[in-house]
Structure formats: C-alpha cells, structure tokens
Protein: Ubiquitin thioesterase OTU
Organism: Rhypophila decipiens
Amino acid sequence: MKIQVRIRAPNGQSRLEIDDEATLGELIGLVKEKTSLEKFSLKYGYPLKNLDLSPEAQSKTHVKDHGLRGETLVVAPLEPRRSASPPPRAVSPPKKPFTPKGIEPDETSLAWPERGGHIVLRVMPDDNSCMFTAFGGALAIEDPSLTLRRQVADYINEHPEQYNKAILGDEPWKYRARMLEMDTWGGAIELSILSDIYKVEICSIDVKTLRVDRFGENMENRVIILYSGIHYDRIAFAMDLSYPVEADETRWKTDDDEVLEKARQLAKRLQSMHYYTDTTDFVIKCEVCQWIGKGTKEANQHTKETKHAKFGEMQIH
C-alpha cells in the first residue's frame, strides 16, 4: 500500500510517496534524493522525537513499522549540503514586516539547548490579516487569510444561536460580510471559531501583560501565537536559525508546558523591548480617510461607521 510522507528540510518542504512495505533504508534513500543531504537525523511527531536510523533499523524494519503514514519528517542536517545542489530560490520578504519601536526580527529568538534549537518569533506582515496568517501558517494552510476568513464566515452562519448579535456586536450577516474583507482584523471571536474548526488549542500570549489566553479545551495539540496590542505573530521552534520557516515546528502537545513557558520567556524579553502597542490610549490613524482617534474602542466604532479597517499607530513625540 502506498503512503505519503511530508518532508521539511533546509531546502524547503516536499512530499514523497512510498510503499509501506519498503524498508526504512529505502525511505532514507528517497529523503537523500529530495534534500541533497547525505547525513541527517529525522524527527517526527508532536512533540518531535528521533527516528532510529541505525543500520540495523534501516535494513530490518519497514515503513509501516514506524507509523509514518501522513507524518511530517523534519530533516536535521549533520553536515553541509552537497555543493552540487543549487541553493533554494529566495523568497521575497513581506512588504511591511511589523517591527514596533524598532525591534528587528533577528532579535526575537531564545536558545533552547535542552531541545537542540531555538524558540523563535516569526514576524507576520502588517496587512490586517496577521492573525489569520499567524495561525494558518502554523497548520501549513495555503492562502490562510482567504481560506480562514471564509471558514469563519461559514461557521458563524451555521451556528446562529452561538454567534448572535449580542456576541458579535453587530448583525451576523454584517459581521460575516465584514470579516470576508481582507482589511478586517481578526481577534478573539475568530480564534475561538478556528480552534473549534481545526480541533486545536490556540494559546495567545499578550506581550504587555504576559497573560496567556487559551482558545479551545480538551484538544490534543496546540499552536502558540503572540499578541502585541494591534498585531499577531507566530511562535515556532527552529533547530537552526538558518533553516527556512518551512522546517519550523509549530504544533505541540497540550501537556507540553515547557514550550509554553519558553514562549512566555520570549514574550517577556520582547516586553522589555516594548514590542507592543498600548491599546488603551494609543493614537491611531485611518490610512483610508486619515481619521485620527484614540484606542481600539474608537477604532472599532470608526470601522462600523465607515467600513474602513486599515489603521496605523501614530508616534507622538
């Protein structure tokens, strides 16, 4: 029987198909072809664990013995890639990375030697879809903003008693229509809905207070995002900071309290750098009509009245 396995490696993400009766050694051969690596370790599962790649295991065990159907194998190089292989094509960076108070993305990581890597902040584009991009990227969802907005709107439509005007603060049909607009921010309501749709706990860490808001109960896996007042970013684990984001680990078991504490440590470091916007009294400007207001309450009211939802923080000196 053929099975599919996804591979995450320094040269990107790919899929391979292999017979479940094939030996582990045959699987290793396919990984070498896909990655142009000769020596590496393989990790899989949540949390990541090492696959036994000993000569005996490669020759005497089969793919089906390891339960790899549908798994993602993370390839950790043990030596540099062969020079004969061309480097991966560069991916254009986001047009507007979110860097409040001058914080640079390469400052947003903490070494985690006990797990052989780093806990890192993956900075999302400042395009009003940061929450959807942060969550969707953790689950490798294609075109997350468009996909998740539609799913949220459909969910609200299918659960009218749960998501009524009292909860949404507006007529459900208006709320759904607004959420489908790419300039509309997502927040707690959308996180709660996405948690239920994807059956995953979402932990949102507030940089200013270090509070952890949990969306979804009794789930097996979790993802972690970071909230900095008017923006969301994604928390990930990287074995090496030079690896592409496709090789990140972004899901963990919900009983893995160590990763949540490590993420809070990173949030505390960012807090000391003032990587947040105080939404109670910050001055905000509508980038559509140049309206100026104060705090999220006034911004939300402006959105309701005008349907404008593209804002920027004004620096007052």
